[in-house]
Amino acid sequence: MRLLDNLEVIAREKRLKVARAILYMAQGTFAECGSEAEVQHWMRYNIFLLLDVGTFTALVELLNMEIDNSAACSSAVRKPAISLADSTDLRVLLNIMYLMVETIQQDDLADKPEWKIIRETFRAELGSPLYNNEPISVMLFGMVTKFCSGHAPHFPMKKVLLLLWKSILFTLGGFEQLQSIKVHKREELGLPPLPEDCIRVIRSMRAASPPASASDLIEQQQKRARREHKALIKQDNMDAFNEKDPYKADDSRDDEEDSDDNDNSIEAETFPLERDEVMPPPIPHPPSERMSFPKGLPWAPKVREKDIENFLESSRSKFIGYTLGSDTDTIVGLPRPIHESIKTLKQHKYISIAEMQIAKEEEFQKTPLSVGEEEVEMCATELLYQGILPSLPQYMIALLKILLAAAPTSKAKTDSINILADVLPEEMPTTVLQSMKLGVDVNRHKEIIVKAISAVLLLLLKHFKLNHIYQFEYMAQHLVFANCIPLILKFFNQNIMSYITAKNSISVLDFPYCVVHELPELTAESLEAGDNNQFCWRNLFSCINLLRILNKLTKWKHSRTMMLVVFKSAPILKRALKVKQAMMQLYVLKLLKVQTKYLGRQWRKSNMKTMSAIYQKVRHRLNDDWAYGNDLDARPWDFQAEECALRANIERFNSRRYDKTHNNPDFLPVDNCLQSVLGQRVDLPEDFQMNYDLWLEREVFSKPISWEELLQ
User: Fold this and answer.
1) d(Cα 22, Cα 24) in Å, to the nearest integer?
2) Whether this model's pTM surpasses 0.90
3) DSSP secondary structure, 449-485, as one string
4) Which of 476, 481, 446 is nearest to 460 (CA)?
């Protein structure tokens, strides 16, 4: 309590000293602890104590003060080089807030009952407009845009984005919660239950071997030939293998990268997943449960209502010569096999929550009076959407700008934003060891930024899609307009294997290891060797998230799928298949599946391994002609028309639900009581009062009024 009182003193140095004392408490008063477990125990204890006495509210007020600190902003704008010293106050505050949110959002079975109550209250407070009339995430989004606009270049972006991610994760919920919300919503709408639990199916998947490239095949043949002491392969055979298909022409790096494929591919089984990520940790399955999965395809096939309609239409015109529109029940005159086909299609019919929401929205637009007022459930997702709705396009552009600056494929340009303000020290390194350490730190810093942004975007897209499809479409469309699709493809246009096996962390400096143990002397050699991990979980996590975002943006959108084709994403995505991790491969294969029919016969012929992997791993849509390309969908595409139609629907939804000022005057209640209408005070302008008699003469007396017609 004494520390909290001192947080409000005017002198900046005193405030900073007190904030650091609170940070030391939040870090588990580590100087008095002997082991990592002890540090973590006291961290949890102290953080609940700090929360109970109201520390978080005080921190939010201080953070607001720092955000509005115009003197700090203007001095940072004028500085030629910004360093760690410019953001000290902000970093200490954000550190404490991050530790509090991150520790409390982790559910621990050993927590006391009163802690559980505090936790739920805190979750509700974070997501509601309690702190300065907006959810905490909206305030952090404001910081991101202010940083990107160049008005506050000293903001520590990594910490802001991490806090933003964890706040969204805590208030809206992770993937387990998403799954349960989905199940609950389907029950409410009277829809049949989901055919399977996606998280479990993906966990039980095995990774496939990546498709071999021409150079790999040659190498294998050569090895075989050497082993059998036979002559080398004939020259004409090699020529046959070296023939490049037209889609590989632009992919010069394919060969040299593929050659080391067999040596350092990561086996899927060696992936232990960290516990604090968006993707929940794998539950150790007993062997019996593993075996209970049926042999065959992992996903139950799905069919949309539209697919059944199309099938019936084509069957009717073929066998009977007439069509019945959207009637899916009349099967008179159709042969028996068609009856069986329709029965199978209907068995696998899947109606999504989104389809129900779109139908309901159409009803609201057509008959607003008879449908009545819509009851909107004020959940955390709804409150967040209302908070970010006015500036959502700016927020999306800002996040993508930072993602571009942090991507490893980006070249350092003078006009790109400086995201290293909270990693560069005041004094630049003088020794080789210092500069190596800083190099690792800068790379780690960028990786964490990519991780946080990818997680924020994916969580928002998934939650908005469940809450209302048009909220999701609004965010997705602004991401597409801000060039998110080419940006993600550019991110993957690198050696993904080396990105996922990057060693940009110094494990002995990780908290709480570094405060409990004696630090060994760091040398250039030990830094170069890195840690023993075979891979970098952080980067794999970012890659999977970005692939999922790309899937979300392009699914069922013909024009956006064609963007994938136009940007030549196939060779880029094929390279990403080298990472032998089932979840990542699944989302790459999904992206390849949607564009297969547009890539031409030659591509399909030379990529049969990829085609069979798609068949094995991706969900089947019955009568979806993805593999052959003789489909109606190979029509010319009009990007603008599709996006404009979607945009019109989104705008109608937003103005109906959130824009109370522009209500249609025809639907407002009319006051038809003579007393109250005449009793209303109407302020008339001065010039009207002066020329009142002229107006009477012109508008009333000189105009003939046919009273009979008026009364009729």
Assistant:
1) 5
2) no
3) HHHHHHHHHHHHHHHHHHH-HHHHHHHHHHHHHTTHH
4) 476
